[in-house]
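Hello, quick one for you while I still have it in my head. A protein chain has come my way and I'm curious about its shape. I'm sending you its amino acid sequence along with the C-alpha cells. I'd be grateful if you could look everything over and explain what you see. Here's the protein in full, and shout if anything looks odd to you:
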Amino acid sequence: MTLFEQILESRGLTGDAAEVFLHPDYALGHDPFLLPDMQAAVERLVSARQKQEKVTIYGDYDIDGLTATTVLVEALHAFGFRFVETFIPNRFIEGYGMTEAAVERIAETGATLIVTVDCGSLSEGPIRRARELGVDVIVTDHHNVAPVQPPAVAVINPKRLLQDYPDVYENYILKPGFASDFSDVVSSSGLSQASSKSKAKPLSNSLSNSSSIYNLESKIYPFLDLPGVGVAFKLVQALQTRLDGLANGQEKWLLDLVALGTVCDVVTLVDENRTHVYWGLKVLAKTRRPGLKALMAVSGVEPEKVNARNLGFALGPRMNAAGRLETAKYAQDMLLARSGEAALELAQQLDEMNLARRSDQDAIYKAALEQAMKYENDPVLVLSHPDWNHGIVGIVAAKILEKYKKPTYVLQEMGKESKGSARSYGDFSAADAIRASDDIITKGGGHKLAAGVTLPTDNIEAFRKRVNEYFLSLNLSPQLPHLLPKEDVEITDFTEITEAVVEQIATLEPFGNGNPEPVLKITNVLVANVRRMGAEAQHLKLTAKDANDRSVELLAFSAPSEWFVEPGTRINVWFQPILNEWQGRRSVEGRLLQLEVAS
C-alpha cells in the first residue's frame, strides 16, 4: 500500500467513499426546500419581485457576512429586483447583529423587506420593531437559535433542526438510518417545507464523506454546518425554481464567494461545504469578479494556484482588516466593484489596513502576554485593557490560546462597557460559557470555538470568576491532546516523501476544519543540522536524517525554544510534506508541527 493509500485509509476513505471525496459532485447538492422556512421565504421574495418592493440585505462585518451579502445582491439583481440595497453594521457603532436603531434607519429609506445574512436568529426585539414599522424580515443565519423563533416571515437556519431533533445528527450530519424514520414527524411539524409542497424542482441529495447514501427527499436536511454564505446560496438555489433570470448552472459563478466565506468562517469542510469550496476554488481561479482579481493581485496569490490556505491566510485577513479597524464597507465595495481600477484601489487600501492591523495586533499581544502571567493558575484566561481595539482582540485571543493552551477571552474596556472576543478548543464551548454568564453580561454568543461578549466593565472580575467556575463544573478530561497534531500515518523512513506524494496529497484539498492537511509522524530520526532564521532568530530550519541516511528539511516559524535542539540529537517529529519553489528550483520539505526528543 502506498503512503497516499495509507492516508486515505486512515480517514476512512476507501472504495466509493474515496471517489466521492476526491471528486465532489456539485449536482448531488441537498434540496434547499428541506431547510426550515425556505418555502415561506421564497414566497415572500417572489411577491417582492412582482411588486418591485425595496429590499435591504442586512449583512455582517466579517467575511462570511460580506460574501453572503454579495451573493444575495448579485442574485436578486439577476432575478430582476430593481431596488436592492445593503446595510453592513459597523463593529464600533451597531456591533454584531441587528439593532432597533438600524432597523428604523432602514425603514426610513422605504424598504419593506429586510433579508438578513449571517445574523438575526436571536434578534427578536429588532425584528418585532421592524414589524411595527411595516417591514417584513427574512432571516438567513447559521448561529445559535432561540427556543422560540423571532417574529420573522421566515427563519432559515439549519441549527433549528439540531435543536428540534438533537438525537438524529452527529457532527452536524444526519445519522444513517434516520432518513425514513423522520418523514412523518418532520412533515407534520411544518418546520421544513419540502420541494414536493411547492413548485420547486427537487434537487438530488448528496453523499456525505462516508459511504452512506441518504435518501432524504421530502424529509429533513442532512447537513447542518453550513456557513452564513452557504445558507444564502441555498436561498438562491431555491429562488431559481420560481424566478427567471439566473438559469440553472449560472449560480455556480457565485461559488467563488461561497468558498471564501466558507473557509474564512472555519466551518467543517465536509459534505456540502467541501463541495462548495472544491468547486468554488475552480471558479475563483477564473473569477469574473474585479474585486477578487484585485485582492489576489495585492495578496501575491496566483489565481491558477489558489487554494483554501490562500483564502484563510491571504485574502481573508485583508478583507477582515477593514471591519476590524474602520468599516467593513470598504471590503463590501471591493466585492461589488464593477471596474478593475476601482477594485484595485480598494484592494490596495485593504492591504494597507492589514499592515496597520498587524502592527496594532502585535502591540496588544505583547501586553496581553504580560497580563496573562497574573492569571497563570486560571484554566480560562480573561484579559482586558482600555487600549485594546475590540476589533482585533479576537486574533489576539487565538494567539494567547496557542501560547498558553487555554480558552481565552480578550476585552477592550470602553468606559462603563467592555467588548471582546473569545477563542476556545476541545470540549470547552466559549459560547456556552457566555450563556452561563447571562445575568452579568449585556449580550453575547457565537460558536463553540469562537464567540463575542459585551458586559459592564465593573463585571469583568465576576465574569472571569464565572467562566472559570463553569470550566471546572464540566469536569473535562485533559484538553491539551486536542491541540497536539494527530498523525494520519507513522512512517519508518523518508523514502516516499517525494514531489509525487505531495501532488497526491493536494487532491485532498480543500483543507480546513474537518479536513485537515495530512500529518505524518516519524520517530528516532537524527538531527543533522540546525539553522535559526528571522530577525530575532525565531524561525527554525533543521535537517532530519532517517536510518537509511535520507534527509528532509523541516521548517517551523516562531518555533518554541525547546525545538532548537543540538545536531546529533534524536527526535520524533510530526510534519506535513510541502513543495518549496524558489528561483525556479523545487524541493520537498516538511512543515514542522511538533517535535520531541526521542527517549
Q: What stands out?
A: The radius of gyration is 25 Å. The longest strand covers residues 520-533.
